[in-house]
Amino acid sequence: MAANQADFQTYRAGALKTAELLDALRTELDEVARTEPVDFTGESGGCRTLRDYHAMSTLVDAHLADAGVDGVVVLCGTRSLEELAYWLDLTVRSPKPVVVTGSFRPWNALGSDGPANLHNAVAAAAAGRTTGFGTVVVLNDRVLSARDATKCDTLRLDGFRGREWGALGVVDERNVRLLRAPARVLRHGSPQWSTPFDLSRIDPARLPRVEIAYSYADAGGEAVTAFAEAGVVGVVMAGDPSERQVGALRAAIGAGLVVVAANRNVSGAVYDPGVPGIIGAEDLLPQKARLLLTLGLAVTDDLDRLRALFGEHGVPEFG
After folding, report:
1. Alpha-carbon distance 133 to 124, whole Å?
2. Is 183 exposed, middle or buried (0-12, 13-18, 19+ CB in 10 A)?
3. If you count Cβ atoms within 10 Å of the first and of the last residue's Cβ in the chain, which end, N or C, has fewer?
């Protein structure tokens, strides 16, 4: 909530309960779905850590197991929205619709996008059209794939995009229009697709540590070395490593560290080089490659299996 209606970026997060948000739109929401509020408070007081993400996925699946529940809408701050959405995309086992939304402006600010985003997210989930799509993001009338959605602006209301692949569709008032689908729908046969990551078998307190190292001109290799010495088991390299980073990476890989090579730019791919210890993320963003590598290392330390997980689930393709 903002103290002043013109406070577009200054606000207190989490001031309103989910029930209050739904009640403010009760008449409009009742036209598209029957909604029930559920408040989530993770260990960090919100949904900011991977242990929180683990708990959120478990909670979502528990609700979707109810025959009376057709879909779930998850509310999240835009700072971590793309990461939470992708985590849910990788871990929720139910094929029912899961929609993540949020807002750039406080609920009570002038021109807030919060009410419209919430309404459209509920409408998208209730329509059932994204069954088998995995998790989708609904913001600013667009329906985005959780894999592709990324925050490209910190302030503008259209700050989320689907990168070079664009949106899946739009929500225009009561019309949910879907013009394309994630590749996994066809490849795995919606709604039979299922995640390889069973969170009931993954202890949230023992998730492997994976970090991101950023590349830039003349970057030092000390961060990579420090990560390895601190017990990190995987590193995502964002961008082509500098000469000093290459040396540190070689030593770390020799000690058993798994490295994923990712693109630090808006679009484009880094393909698998076929080098022992290094996996190409193609066009998967570094912050999302980190989540996939974390889950992969939670179930296997076999490099070939990890490489297959990135090819099958990190970069799903048609055909």
Report:
1. 12
2. middle
3. C
